[in-house]
Amino acid sequence: MAVKRSGQPAYAQLAEDLRAQMRDGSLAVGSEIPSTSQLMSKYEVSNTVVKRALDLLKAEGLLIGQQGKGVFVRELPAAPEPSAADVAAVMRRLDELGARVEQLVDRIAALEQTRPTSAQQPSQEP
Question: Most buried residue among 21, 26, 33, 41 by CB atoms closer than 10 A?
């Protein structure tokens, strides 16, 4: 699979394809990522593109490199479940924001009613 001329950088396309393989299980937790030369050949990209893609995935915590051994898919800890109190706090905040948006919509509508129409505006002739 060569990277596409889509406007998205080649390293980002490669990183996304590797992420997809991690999601679908074809690159399982603990499995070794193909070598740089294998990735270069498969995706028809340069060493720099492969390095940037792997660096991005390492920064995201999806991969871990082991000096002299390779790069491996990292096991991520499960995300903690939000508590009922956390959910309630988020819901309250959403209600507050919704009320503020309604107030702003009402203010904009009131301002638009008081604004002179183009027929009422004085001409700009010298």
Answer: 33
- The closest of 94, 113, 117 to 105, measured between CA atoms, is 113
Please, where are the H alpha helices in the chain? 10-24, 36-43, 47-59, 84-114
Whole-number Cα distances in Å, 5 to 11, 19, 29, 44: 12, 19, 30, 12
Decide if 10 contacts 45 (C-beta within 8 A): yes
> Distances from the Cα of 10 to the Cαs of 6, 22, 46, 68, 93, in angstroms?
9, 19, 9, 26, 40
- Provide the pLDDT confidence category of residue 126 given band limits of 50, 70 and 90: low
SS3 category, 7: coil
Q: How many CA atoms lie within 13 A of 66 on its CB side?
A: 9
Given a contact cutoff of 8 angstroms between Cβ atoms, the answer to whether 14 and 50 are in contact is yes
